[in-house]
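Dear Dr. V.,

Thank you for agreeing to look over these. As mentioned in my earlier message, I'm a first-year student in the group and I'm still getting used to reading structure tokens, so any feedback on how I've presented them would be very welcome. I ran two proteins. I've put each sequence directly above its structure. The first is here:
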Amino acid sequence: MLKLLGCICILAASGGMAYSCVAGLRQKLRQTELLLELLTAIEGEITYSRCPLPELLAHLAQHIQQPYGKLLQETGARMEDRIEADIPFLWKEVCGTFRPQLDLPSEAYQVLLRVGEVFSYTSLDASLQLLELGRKRLTAVAESRYAEFAGKRKLYCCLCYMAGLFSMILLL
């Protein structure tokens, strides 16, 4: 009876481990999708809003999910503190402080770092072209991650359940 209960607990633990691994993969995909939404929102705000940059960032921060909302708030606050700041450098500095919270692949993080350059251009067309390039890169990264996700999900589930079955055999 105790061995059967132990086997059920091992099977439940291996299922929980598989779920945890797949949830981590989904989180990485979600972060990339949110970054893509952020680029689209920045494009819309730059095109139609025409408000000062700290106000633009504060407005975007209210509508974008975390952790990007906090990143935008922090950048806006630092821009208000420093009157004559190098905007791309300031953006990279803030992104560097938020790097542990961002669960992004390196390609997507590089696109995020380039977003600061959008705010430094005086030409609206140059800013929009840079955002379009960033969206294309992020779309390619997201598509490749989705293709990898299916294979990794199966692999993680198989490994976790096989480890659980092996542990149950050792228990019996």
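The second protein is here, in the same arrangement:
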Amino acid sequence: MYDAMDSFLKVETWHTNHPLDEERFFRALSTIVRRPDFNSDDMRQYMRSQKNITTHDGSNGFERVVDELALKASAVREYLKITGE
């Protein structure tokens, strides 16, 4: 399921806060976030694996970005759950 994020991760600038990258992230997320088995921590692990992030101490700049994206995904999931959308 998390391979839906590949279209976002394959773009060289995926880790920037550029509006186009953010749009790509949310478009990819929209294809999986409503699935009953979606889990933002599992998505985080998938993205870490795809980008070969092996650190867990914040020393890798990409690690921080992936963590932030997982938090965004979790917020979207919670919003959808609360609003029934």
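From my reading of the second output: The chain has a mean pLDDT of 93. The CA atoms of residues 40 and 70 lie 5 Å apart. Does that match how you would interpret it?

Kind regards,
E.
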